[in-house]
Amino acid sequence: MKKRVTKAVFPVAGLGTRFLPATKSVPKEIMTLVDRPLIQYAIDEARAAGIKEFIFVTARGKSALEDYFDLAPELESKLRKDGKDELLEILKTTNMDSGAIAYIRQHKALGLGHAVWCARRLIGDEPFAVMLPDDVIAAEKPCLQQMVEAHAETGGCMVAAMEVPGSKVSSYGVLDIEEDMGSIVKIKGMVEKPPVHEAPSNLAVIGRYILTPNILKNLNSIKPSAGGELQLTDAIAAETAQGNNVFGYRFRGERFDCGSKAGFLQATVSFGLARPELCEEFGQYLHDMVAMRNAAQ
Ligand code: G1P
Predict the structure, then answer these.
(1) How far apart are CA 110 and CA 113, in angstroms?
(2) Is 14 in the pocket of ligand 1 (CB under 6 A)?
(3) Which DSSP symbol is given to 245?
(4) Which of 54, 104, 265, 291 has its CA 20 to 30 A from that of 112?
């Protein structure tokens, strides 16, 4: 019987330099879309997919993340005293059972592959998910859940995938397609951030992965590549070279690149408009802004 995916790794050690000065003292994963930090979106998605153990690969300066998932006794007793039950309910989503969350330090920024490797002892010998909280995905059925369901059929390794314009391929891991079956694509290779003329396709990896424990072995032997870093992409590509199955999964949903300012702003607008309590006022404001800009042009 195939093992269920119950563990997820969240690489959250990045410095977030693109958002300085905000990220000087606030981890970028705590930056907020409407009223929830990025990391909360990833955790909610993981929970919906059946994840029970959450492994954070952190670094210096990320302690706000640990506090975020801790209890807040003073705040909670004040809210209880004031009868603010709704807010108490909201806070519950930030709590984790004891032992369900673990923090591992990545002492040096050696790349995404290295970050996942740092979690190897906690992953053990079972398939696991990796989620990059920068990639926020709005979907009717959460993306990782879609993947867990597809993976129950395919086994092997699976990465979320999305077509991107040719001019953008050099920002992504890119899939070399062996067989395109629609939502599932069997792949024969994967390249990290190729120049456009060397890209094997324009099907890009988005930050959701379901990986076999063999990836951890591959991570022991890969060498630094794109950007001089140890790339997770190379460890997954090694699977295809060893004849093991790797699939791309074209998820249903809208992905926002919250690692970029434009993507973050787009996500803010989209998630803001999706809130019933905000959509009217905020929608009207956006409408007026656009009308004003058009009139001025
Ligand atoms: C990482 C991965 C890359 C993937 C991307 C998705 O790159 O290395 O393969 O396509 O996430 O967001 P990063 O954006 O961290 O440079």
Answers:
(1) 8
(2) no
(3) -
(4) 265
User: What whole-number distance in Å separates Cα of residue 132 and Cα of residue 207?
Assistant: 5
pLDDT in tens, 239-282: 999 999 999 999 999 999 999 999 999 999 999 999 999 999 99
Ligand 1 pocket test, candidate residues 132, 208, 236, most atoms within 8 A of CB: 132
Atom of ligand 1 nearest to the CA of 190: 9
Task: Using the atom order of ligand 1, give the atom closest to the CA of residue 14.
Answer: 15
Its pTM stands at 0.94
- Split at pLDDT 50, 70, 90, the class of 123 is very high
Domains and CATH numbers, the chain: 7-259 (3.90.550.10)
Our mutation pick for probing the ligand 1 site, out of 130, 205, 225, 246, counting the most ligand atoms within 8 A of Cβ, is 205
pLDDT in tens, 15-26: 889 999 999 989
CA–CA separation, 79 and 74 (whole Å): 9
